[in-house]
Design a protein that fits this description.
The protein has ten helices and 13 strands. It is of the alpha+beta class. It folds into three domains: 75 residues, no CATH class; 144 residues, Trna Endonuclease, Chain: A, domain 1, CATH 3.40.1350.10; 82 residues, Ribosomal Protein S8, Chain: A, domain 1 (2-Layer Sandwich).
């Protein structure tokens, strides 16, 4: 017997051996198609199948090797990379544990892919502010006030500051200019006045309006995890929506290797009106009290301890945050 297979429509049927070597019209689509010897046709088909199967096996092996490599990267993430200059935390495999954690609780999330990208300078400036908050808050408050008035020129008077504070503030403002956070910088040393011109970019305005606290907290967490050789999943500005439709935004959310959730809300100034909101949010997320942290910049240690005793939330400040995390992880 011989075999007819149309190369156009795929129609196939057996025909008599007397048709071998001939070309006939396909009864389905009228395409002229040659008649093949059945044995030769099957041999060619099997040969092609074996070649394709081998290619598939090679691809599977490569995929397996990639998966193993990803696992190794996760295990040595903070031992091998520069956490101050990486986009590793923005990659899908890094945030997948967070996606799964919320999916299991039927909570929809919207992840900002750039929220943990430290290849820019937001993290460096945020650490400068947070590590020197008692001095630099004066500058940040001035900048925030001026930009919220839609002005761009800031005058920072230093006459009442100590020589050490002046040195810190001058150095900080110069770094703001070096890293392009401000458009212009000029220090009138004789008058003890710094004049800066603000950038108008939305990202810069948001940074000075409070996003810097999220960056500071993220970097302190990453530094801590790096020292502990823990590879967490972390993100900032995570938007979540519960099944009933209520939406919230989490300043910082992390999962440790043991799947321990840590939610941190960053505040400065007046925050007390938000306590009820955070109490409700913690219950909805079903996170333990010590894992739902309100980090209030400038809050005294005594106030933090007192409020932690009063509410089913954990209050810390910028200096006690890491100490608290050591008790959680």
């Amino acid at each position: 017997m011989a075999i007819f297979r149309c190369n156009k429509c795929g129609h196939i049927r057996e025909v008599g051996s007397n048709y071998l070597g001939k070309s006939v019209k396909c009864p389905k689509c009228d395409q002229i198609t040659p008649i093949h010897d059945t044995v030769l046709f099957l041999k060619a088909l099997i040969k092609k199948y074996i070649a394709l199967n081998k290619e598939i096996q090679n691809l599977r092996q490569l995929s397996s090797e990639d998966s193993s490599a990803n696992e190794i990267v996760e295990n040595i993430l903070f031992e091998e990379i520069d956490i101050h200059n990486t986009n590793v935390l923005t990659q899908t495999n890094s945030i997948e544990p967070i996606i799964q954690w919320f999916d299991q609780r039927k909570i929809q999330i919207n992840v900002n892919p750039d929220a943990a990208d430290t290849t820019g300078f937001f993290d460096e400036i945020a650490l400068l502010i947070g590590n020197n908050f008692s001095v630099l808050n004066y500058v940040i408050s001035q900048i925030k006030y001026v930009q919220n008035k839609n002005y761009t020129n800031v005058k920072i008077e230093l006459a009442k500051k100590s020589p050490q504070e002046i040195q810190q503030i001058v150095s900080f403002c110069k770094e703001l200019h070096d890293y392009s956070f401000v458009a212009k910088y000029y220090y009138q040393k004789k008058d003890k006045v710094i004049r800066i011109t603000l950038q108008k970019a939305p990202q810069i305005k948001s940074f000075f309006n409070g996003i810097w606290m999220e960056w500071f907290t993220l970097m302190k967490l990453l530094e801590f995890f790096s020292e502990q050789k823990i590879a967490p999943a972390c993100t900032r500005g995570l938007k979540i929506t519960f099944t009933e439709g209520n939406s919230n935004e989490l300043d910082l959310f992390c999962l440790t290797e043991k799947n321990t959730p840590i939610c941190i809300e960053c505040k400065s100034g007046e925050f007390r009106q938000d306590i009820d909101k955070y109490l409700s949010l913690r219950k909805k997320l079903k996170i333990n009290k010590n894992q739902f942290v309100i980090c209030v910049f400038g809050l005294s240690q005594e106030q933090a301890q007192g409020m932690t005793s009063m509410y089913d939330l954990t209050f810390v400040n910028e200096t006690s945050l890491i100490h608290h995390l050591q008790t959680v992880i």
